[in-house]
Write a structure and sequence with these properties.
Elements: H1 12-16, H2 19-24, H3 34-37, E1 40-42, E2 51-61, E3 64-71, E4 77-84, H4 90-105, E5 114-119, E6 123-129, E7 134-135, H5 137-142, H6 147-166, E8 169-170, E9 179-181, E10 194-196, E11 203-204, E12 211-212, H7 225-228, E13 231-232, H8 235-250, H9 259-268, H10 285-294, H11 305-309, H12 312-316, H13 328-340, H14 343-353, H15 358-371, E14 378-380, H16 381-387, H17 392-406, E15 409-411, H18 412-420, H19 426-437, H20 447-454, H21 460-464, H22 474-481, H23 495-500, H24 516-524
Parallel strand pairs: 1-5
Antiparallel strand pairs: 2-3, 3-4, 4-6, 5-6, 7-9, 8-11, 9-10, 12-13, 14-15
Length: 527
């Protein structure tokens, strides 16, 4: 596993004010620095510089309140969890660093994105996607629960679990409260997109290795037998998903009673022997078989997330998705632009994707899920080409470009980045990118900020040398971001409007042209 980054050009006062950030830069992660440093903010920047905090409380937990907020530039609604570190022990601080590091590292349509983190004197504020539908319990309040709807829900839970397990992460606290609905459920509709949250007790694990734990973690009613015995693998998450599935199907808890009684039930397994058995009469045999495989008391015998996704019960139920709002021809053009862009431009596109609205993100995630036929959260080039109807010569060209710049495939955030640049004006993109790149809040981006964000491999000196005083202002950035060579053959100028009402617009967008001399010089630097 690698580390976050290199140099952090902050003075000693800033460093003393950001002890979590100092630990975070030492945390093991496989992510490139731009995905972390552009989202983690220290003093003098505060959350109120970028967001309007509202009074509406979305939830409360042991660690603090979660409130609604609005991005000042994009008007994107977000959820903000505030954590007071005033009386944090060393272990609590270490746990917080672990939570942030893991959340920054995950990148999947069924996991809520950690958009920003702000550290002040004694407070951490975590900004995540706003999920207006509430937790899974909201389903039963608003619609009739059918086996088909449960299958749709379970598939999404397993996709999230399969993804984190492939990244050697175990969640350890899966329960209905930690899966949120993207939108409010309505009778007659599918469940929509659900997303996993809260990595407070999650851990990185060595693949195939049994991990030990002094104390049982998570919520007792959802805890696997091996966790009660103070050891675990990632299979403990599958048991927990089994418990959630059980509750959704028959509306009662599989394990109950006082702590000792509940523990005895968990260790025995066979939860269908507990409670009113007649409720299982209407449940299919395939469904009951999958549950039995999830509730194997030995993790060795228990089904994995990858295996469960291939089970006949899930494969037999047609997914109740809203359908892809974006034809694959648009995805092809977006990815081609993304792959051909410079490293700096791709970083700008990535940052823009974090400002997408829930509606835009939801529509785009449907396309990605359609492309991700293996359910891993990663689409290889060949799988994408198999979906896109292109002539052989065009396929070869696209394959070469994607292979060269995207390493043979693309992640969810890469896909969002490729599509996001068409949903914002140059001015909006520049504002969003600039607020993240201007680390020191000086009003200009210089060599030091770029070195923090990109690391030593990017020729920062060459890049900024072509701007006045070797600094890039927000106006310089806006001019740079205009790409006069971008494809316009599809006639689409306002992608966000296209997502809401899928029809191409024919009038070309008027944007400022980048000065030819500046453009040539920047290309010399690989920007």
């Amino acid at each position: 596993m690698g580390h976050f980054c290199s140099k952090i050009p902050q003075d000693s006062a800033q460093k003393k004010a950001a002890p979590v950030f100092r630990q975070l830069t030492k945390a093991p992660l496989k992510e490139d620095s731009i995905r972390v440093h552009s989202r983690y903010h220290c003093l003098p920047k505060r959350i109120c510089d970028d967001y309007v905090l509202l009074d509406e409380v979305l939830g409360k937990g042991m660690s603090g309140e979660v409130k609604l907020a609005v991005n000042k530039v994009s008007q994107q609604r977000v959820a903000v969890k505030s954590l007071s570190m005033r009386n944090f022990s060393k272990q609590q601080r270490k746990t917080l660093v672990n939570e942030i590091a893991i959340h920054f590292s995950v990148d999947h349509p069924n996991i809520a994105t950690l958009i920003d983190a702000y550290e002040s004197e004694d407070t951490i504020e975590l900004v995540t996607e706003y999920m207006e539908g509430g937790c899974l319990f909201s389903l039963r309040k608003n619609m009739t629960i059918t086996e088909e709807l449960v299958a749709e829900t379970v598939k999404q839970m397993l996709l999230a679990a399969n993804y984190i397990h492939n990244k050697s992460i175990v969640h350890r606290d899966i329960k209905p409260e930690n899966f949120l609905l993207q939108k409010k459920p309505e009778a007659g509709e599918g469940v929509g997109t659900i997303k996993l949250i809260d990595f407070g007790v999650s851990k990185w694990i060595d693949p195939g290795k049994i991990m030990s734990s002094v104390n049982a973690t998570g919520t007792r009613a959802y805890t696997a037998p091996e966790v009660l015995q103070h050891f675990y693998t990632d299979k403990c998450d599958i048991w927990s998903i089994g418990v959630v599935t059980f509750i959704l199907l028959v509306d009662y808890m599989p394990f109950f009673g006082n702590p000792a009684q509940m523990a005895a039930m968990i260790m025995r397994g066979r939860p269908r022997d507990n409670g009113p058995k007649h409720r299982w009469d209407a449940i299919s045999e395939d469904c009951k078989e999958l549950l039995d495989l999830m509730f194997k008391t030995s993790p060795v015998d228990r089904i994995s997330a990858e295996q469960a996704l291939q089970h006949p019960w899930l494969r037999s139920h047609r997914e109740q998705s809203e359908g892809s709002a974006v034809p694959l021809q648009y995805a092809q053009v977006g990815l081609q632009r993304f792959a051909r862009a410079s490293r700096f431009r791709r970083a700008c596109m990535l940052i823009t994707s974090w400002a997408l609205t829930s509606e835009e993100r939801s529509n785009l995630s449907g396309v990605f899920v359609e492309l991700d036929t293996k359910g891993t959260g990663y689409v290889d080039v060949q799988s994408f080409l198999d979906k896109v109807n292109l002539p052989v010569d065009k396929q070869d060209q696209l394959s070469q470009v994607l292979d060269a710049t995207c390493g043979g495939g693309f992640r969810y955030s890469d896909f969002l980045a490729a599509m996001a640049c068409t949903s914002r004006s140059d001015s909006d993109i520049a504002q969003e990118v600039f607020r993240r790149f201007d680390v020191n809040q000086s009003g200009a981006i210089g060599v030091e900020e770029l070195q923090v964000l990109f690391g030593e491999s990017f020729d920062c000196d060459c890049f900024v040398a072509h701007f006045p005083a070797s600094k890039m202002t927000v106006q310089d950035l806006e001019e740079y971001l205009h790409d006069p060579t971008s494809p316009t053959t599809l006639g689409m100028t306002d992608f966000s409007e296209y997502l809401k009402e899928p029809q191409p617009f024919l009038s070309p967008k008027k944007v400022p042209k980048l000065r030819t001399r500046s453009r040539q010089r920047l290309r010399e630097c690989g920007a």
